[in-house]
């Protein structure tokens, strides 16, 4: 009797019914050769694979630590193992169709407020989020309520079960852990201007579930919205092409709408010219200058472009004061995370910056009430205080 040839499958390929039957016949033949039942042969193969995996993990651990380190089994059980050993216990990522449970978890997290930010991954814009917000969403009452409606969602009772549920995403290649990189590092050309808040990221080898780790979404979710948008765009293009065939009242309405849009555009340009003229006049009459709608051309929302209504031009001292405040807040948050007292110099600089801000606001209010002369005096006083903040920061 000829020995059946082994079935070759590509990673992620689903076997056909004929291939499944051939595999079953091959397993039965191998079990009969060794005088075992099919169930006993399968258990033997599982035990052999587990031993090989344990040996490979031990070799990797020894290579990572620079040599074997002996440690008692009771001590390892008490400590839960070193971090490198816990990382070695992660399952390898194999391409293939995602599991239904992973898709259910991804669809749930996609609809949660994870405070995603845009990043550049392989020259494409992707959404990135922190692990701590995903874990928090999996432990929220909303997840328990969603699990009652969708039985595919795994049960989450504590932090370890939440991490295991989250790890279904990288195992199915729905989301992967990334880190920030500099795309121009090592190049001879000058440093190009980077878009503020837009990270360039790369995939990390270890797919951990630390709170501060960042993951990028590879799962796009349901595509029915994209299909509807594509169909709507096609209908709009056909409607514009067939404009001569429109009824008279539709063409008249389109004309009124176009005139209204042109009027709004003209008003916007007129407002930009008026605010520029007003700034030039006040720059000489009441330095440092007055801006109407200072956020009109900033990268904010439509309504936020008109907030606040007016503001004074920021001077170098104002920018330095704001920078000192931000630095003091960063140091305070960092010290709070590390569980130590904040730096006295940074805290003092931040406190003086806050006091200086209050004094500057009071001086500006008095200047507006008393006239341009008091305005100049208040600004010179604020500038002197700003210089004092610089000295504290340099120390």
Structure overview:
The chain has 395 residues and is of the alpha+beta class. It has helices spanning 17-33, 38-65, 73-79, 83-88, 100-110, 131-138, 141-149, 159-166, 168-171, 224-241, 248-285, 316-338, 344-370, 372-394; strands at residues 117-121, 124-130, 175-181, 199-203, 214-217, 290-292, 310-312. The strands form two sheets. It has a five-stranded mixed barrel.
SSE arrangement:
Elements: H1 17-33, H2 38-65, H3 73-79, H4 83-88, H5 100-110, E1 117-121, E2 124-130, H6 131-138, H7 141-149, H8 159-166, H9 168-171, E3 175-181, E4 199-203, E5 214-217, H10 224-241, H11 248-285, E6 290-292, E7 310-312, H12 316-338, H13 344-370, H14 372-394
Parallel strand pairs: 1-4
Antiparallel strand pairs: 1-2, 2-5, 3-4, 3-5, 6-7
Helix pairs in contact: 1-2, 12-13, 12-14, 13-14
């Amino acid at each position: 009797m000829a020995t059946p040839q082994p079935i070759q499958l590509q990673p992620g390929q689903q076997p056909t019914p004929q291939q499944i039957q051939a595999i079953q016949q091959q397993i039965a033949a191998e079990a009969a050769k060794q005088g075992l039942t099919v169930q006993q042969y399968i258990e033997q193969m599982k035990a052999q694979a587990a031993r090989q995996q344990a040996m490979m993990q031990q070799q990797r651990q020894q290579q990572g630590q620079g040599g074997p380190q002996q440690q008692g089994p009771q001590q390892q059980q008490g400590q839960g193992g070193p971090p490198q050993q816990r990382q070695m216990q992660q399952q390898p990522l194999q391409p293939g169709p995602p599991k239904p449970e992973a898709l259910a978890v991804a669809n749930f997290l996609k609809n949660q407020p994870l405070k995603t930010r845009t990043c550049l991954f392989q020259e494409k814009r992707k959404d990135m989020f922190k692990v701590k917000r995903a874990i928090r969403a999996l432990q929220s009452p909303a997840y328990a309520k969603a699990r009652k409606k969708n039985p595919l969602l795994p049960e989450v009772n504590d932090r370890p079960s939440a991490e295991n549920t989250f790890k279904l995403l990288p195992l199915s290649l729905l989301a992967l852990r990334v880190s920030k990189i500099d795309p121009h590092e090592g190049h001879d050309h000058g440093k190009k201007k980077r878009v503020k808040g837009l990270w360039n990221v790369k995939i990390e080898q270890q797919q951990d579930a630390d709170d501060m780790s960042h993951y990028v979404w590879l799962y796009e979710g349901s595509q029915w919205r994209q299909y509807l948008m594509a169909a709507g765009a096609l209908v709009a293009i056909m409607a514009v092409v067939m404009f001569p065939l429109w009824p008279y009242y539709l063409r008249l309405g389109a004309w009124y709408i176009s005139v209204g849009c042109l009027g709004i555009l003209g008003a916007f340009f007129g407002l930009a010219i008026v605010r520029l003229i007003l700034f030039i006049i006040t720059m000489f009459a009441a330095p440092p200058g007055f801006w109407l709608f200072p956020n009109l051309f900033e990268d904010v929302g439509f309504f936020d472009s008109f907030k606040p209504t007016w503001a004074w031009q920021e001077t170098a001292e104002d920018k330095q004061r704001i920078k000192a405040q931000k630095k003091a807040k960063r140091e305070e948050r960092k010290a709070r995370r590390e569980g130590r007292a904040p730096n006295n110099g940074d805290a003092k600089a931040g406190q003086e910056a806050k006091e200086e801000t209050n004094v500057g606001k009071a001086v500006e209010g008095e200047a507006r009430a008393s006239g341009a002369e008091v305005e100049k005096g208040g600004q010179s006083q604020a500038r002197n205080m700003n210089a004092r903040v610089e000295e504290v920061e340099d120390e």
